[in-house]
Amino acid sequence: MILPVITLEQLISASAGALRLAPGQGAGHGPAAAPITGVHVSELEDPTPYLEGGELLLTTGMPWGRGGAQAYVAGLASRGVAALGVGLGPWARAVPEAVTEACREHGLALAVVPDGVPFQNVSRAYWRLALRDDTAGLRQAMGVQAQLVRSATRPHAVTELVRSVAQALGGWAAYLPSSPLDGAGSPPSAGAGASGAGASGAGASGAEAGATLWPPTAAPSLRVLRPDLARLGRSGTPAAGTFEVNGQAVVAHPIAGAGPARGFLVVGAGRSLSAPDRDLIATACTLLSLRVRQRETLASAAASLGSAVVLLLLSGFGEAARLAADDAGLGPLPERVRWLCLRTGPELDAAAALALAPQLMWEGGRVPSAAGFPHRVDDEGLAWVPLPVAAFAESGAAAPVSGTAEDPGTGAPAAPPAPELPAWAGGAVGPAQPLGPPPPGLREAALDARHGSLAGPSEDRGGEAEAWVAALAGFERADLLGTARSYLRHRGRWEDVARELGVHRNTVRHRLGLVAQVLSVDIDDPDVGARLWLALRAHDGAGSAS
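RE: above sequence
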């Protein structure tokens, strides 16, 4: 229990004459203005073993008849007793001069209880004051708790919560998410530019990227704490941690999500935290956790809706995709896009792949962040994202690396160190096109792209298809060219192919196996089949012209 702060002067005022200052005691300052922690009555020669310090000790003066007053007062002072109250009566008609001098010498406040007044009246006055202060403190705490709840319902909930905590504690507070997530922002629409995608709220001050901080002057303390918080977050166990910053204790409280800690509420009060302070922080952590889980649920729902929209685009239903995006609240789809196709990790970690996109090398310039845009992961683990062409324009060309060291051999600037990327990192970017299905060959380009790089739109895909036609035409043991042409014309119906060629369907099956061996591709793949068919048409047209 946290005891209220009550001074001897306040107790005298509230005692209705049951207690008064002894003659020679100054009012408003000195020992009489010191706080007292309770009222204790004892007639022992040495009551100090039963005292904790800070009390007002009431006595009738009986112990002084058996020992010296000087030693008695010295013992009380050494124990930290705040004040001595003398009950006038049979044992002491007035406060002995020796007691007055000893109290003055040891800095002990001195009061008297008039003759005939029960000590119980003084104790009751003390607890009436304590109850009054407890009630006021409870009302204040409830008011602060209500303010926190109101903050959590406002549009910029995280910012408002952090500010309320800092102001209530008289110190500073910050929320550091483990991933970009802040109640002050909202996910970008499908047609947003790169500047809006995946941006994290800068918080109340904007002084620390990714953090919500109040007041802004606490930014240096937060920067000092970041390495410690990173280690605490990697520990795997959501637990609070206490760190020392500039000689003051700073406490980091984990914010729970659906799995590991989603971030930390960091509090620097500059003083010891009381029980109401800790209750306040616990409430703020709970509200932040609810906010985080709410955002995770919304993000999951938006990802599912975005995946459905991208599936419609991949299937060629552009108008249906537009209607679905608008109905789901994803915003209008862009008119012109560049398709981004990324290899994902071994566990189909689409979020990790999309976050890596801007770090991959691409000769076309800087690739915008794909986070926040609709995407879909197919059965091969490829993430498909239709990025607005405007996002590429805003991202600009790749910025030069500043402060690069010189090559000691040539004196020229050395190449910057390559980023450490997962082995699966790579993909391809298609050309600018109207909103619709991705261009043929983008899938193969993404699968063939080098580690750590994004292949651009290939210009020699036609040449590759022509090489396929030449390889089939040069096969002498069977008519692979005619078989492939008939197979594509009849859309894979073997019986129709066999009837057109006048051969058994098992022969068709055998020839198609040879086609796959000669070309090292699957002509049932829509991208491969489309390119091969166009090359066959061009070959037939060239033959007719000749």
